[in-house]
Design brief:
The chain has helices at residues 8-14, 21-26, 34-40, 89-102, 152-161, 177-193, 198-203, 212-224; strands spanning 45-58, 61-73, 78-86, 105-106, 108-109, 128-132, 135-140, 148-149, 166-171, 207-208. The chain has 225 residues and is of the alpha+beta class. The strands form three sheets. Strands 1-2-3-4 form a four-stranded antiparallel β-sheet. A four-stranded mixed β-sheet has the order 6-7-9-8.
Amino acid sequence: MEWIPKTRLGKMVLSGEITTMSDALATKLPLREAEIVDILLPELQDEVIDLNMVQRMTDSGRRVRFAVTCAVGNGDGFVGIGRAKGKEVGPSIRKAIDNAKLNIIEIKRGCGSWECGCGNPHTLPFEVRGESGSVMVSLKPAPRGISLAVGDVAKSMLTLAGVKDAWGFARGNTKTKVNYALATYNALLMTSEMRVTDEQEDRLRIASGPVNMLIRETDVNEMEE
C-alpha cells in the first residue's frame, strides 16, 4: 500500500527535500508518522524490552490485555522507545515499535574518557543522568575495549544507540524494566540537549548522529594516501 503523508514533514521526506534523519529532526517539526523513520532509517532494528499481561475482572468476566515496551535504533546514533497496550500480543508489539519510531532521538558520542585517547566516537562524550520513577541511571565515558559495563536493559538501549563502551550505575527498583529503559533513554537524551563548545567538540571528538560512515570514509582516504 502506497504511503500518503499527512504532515508537512512527511511531505518533505516523500518529495526528497529531506534525505537524512538528522535533517528531519533539525527541522523541529513534530514526528507523527512512522513511515518517515522507515524511509530515512531503513536499517532500523527493534527489540522488545518488556511484555506484561494485565488481567482485570469485570461484570462480563475476566479481560486480558498486554502492555508492551519496545526500543528501536540503527546502531549508529539514533534510538527511540515506545509503549503500547492491546488485546493481542502481535498488534501491541507493532504499535509499540511505531510509537518508539515517533520518539526517536539523535545522540552524541565521543571519546570522553581520560583513560582513552583513540579519537574515535565510541563512547559517551561526558557523564549523563536520567530518571524515571524510582530509577536513576548514570552513564559515564569508558576507554576503548571496556565494552558496556551496564545492566541488561541499559545494554540493549546503548547497543541500539551505537554506544560501544560505557560505565553505568543505577539506583532504585531496576527490576522494573520499563523505568530502567526510560531512565536510560532520558540519559541518552541529555547528550543531545547539552551544549558543548567548539573546543570541547574538538578535544572530545564529539559527533552527533551517524559516525560509522564517517569512519569508513576516513579509513578509505588514509588507504589512498
